[in-house]
Amino acid sequence: MQDAFVRAAERWPRDGAPRNPGAWIVTTARNAAIDRIRRQQTLARKTELLARAEELPEDEEAVIPDERLELIFACCHPALAPEAQVALTLSLVGGLETPEIARAFLVPEATLAQRLVRAKRKIRDAGIPFRVPAEHLLPERLRLVLATIYLVFNAGYGPPVRRELCGEAIRLAAVLATLMPDEAEAHGLHALLLLQDARRDARVSADGELVLLDEQNRSLWDTDGIEQGRRALERALALRLPGPYQLQAAIASLHYEEPADWAQIALLYGRLAELSPSPVVELNRAVAVAMADGPEPGLAIVDGLSGLERYHLWHSTRAELLRRLGRDEEAATAYSRALELAPSETERTFLQRRLSAVD
Amino acid sequence: MQYLLLIHDDEAQWGDMPEDERNAVYAEYGRYTEELQTRGILVGANQLQPSGTATVVHVEDGKTLTTDGPFAETKEVLGGYYLIDVDTLDEALEWAAKIPSARYGHIEVRPIVMREAEVAS
Q: Residues of B near A (CB-CB distance < 8 A)?
């Protein structure tokens, strides 16, 4: 066990990727295809998928141990504190350097380095296993893994964007969904990440500025990614076990429609708020309500929220709604506050531009 | 690997428990211990006398200070332990969850430091 850890700990930060990524991807794709066949909806699709699965080389499968999966279950073990789980996953599975992880989570580098050392020591000394948990432990452990993968994705989604982190999160989500074909939320997370990632090129402009959804150049949307995301979502929904990731994926999918069904999006946010109550979800619902019914009811929701005083998006959302209501002076104040709190240069540039428009 | 499963629970709760329920829990403990033995996992186990029987010793400047009782005033106290030998933390955690007192109190799972001679054997 210790050996396995030491080997993994040495290899992943250095190499970052599986030793045989080509074969690994083939295996993943093959498993995904077989998996889909199991839950086939129509004979036509079944035939098509079977054909595709047969094209993949047969002997690749046996020689590729799914080491990253074992590693991620060890990294996300509940015996480790949540912040240690994320840091370990990024370091050992994502291959990020300590300073990068420290920056992503706004903690001093020394603190993060110590967190990593302690977590690795605990894995070794407490005998946290490097294996996919037994069947009866899997659902609870999976929940932790999904949360961690989503955090990895978000750390890469930026700004600043780190493509390799998003790609890593998507690959891990795909593996999980394949491994656990009956877990709707694993498919849900996979779908959500694919759908969010599909607008990566449109959401940041050539000079690095954030572009609002309704101002995005649709030709920059990754239609293949959207299609893949929607198929993953279909697989999730077919299992009829709704969950937060599926709801968010459904919302992301609706955003790609023209025109977007804002009333439906607002409804899904409402459902999401029931399943996992959070002021940030309410803030998103407020935006959808504003799009469906106008800025006034949206602003009423935003102003009713508490606990987001230090969240730049709360201020920028308020600012935007105030601007649409023609209350430019209040909008300018809110933009200024958002500007003070914004965590990245890209967001500050964006907010500065919005502020100039009302000032 | 060896793990010490430390059973922390509220002694008053045991005193307040109806006798037949207490007997049922004891019988459950018996079956649990037997299962550990049958599987060859059990290294050792003991139930402790109530914490009221405890004595605390501390040495300062070569002088022994002896006081009564456990040093921390907490509701849950150490009531007993199992020492088991399993492969991983996951197995240890599963066995910990099966201890009847896990439903009433908490089980602390601590890996044992293995000396080299023991590891070799």
A: 1, 3, 87-90, 92-94, 111
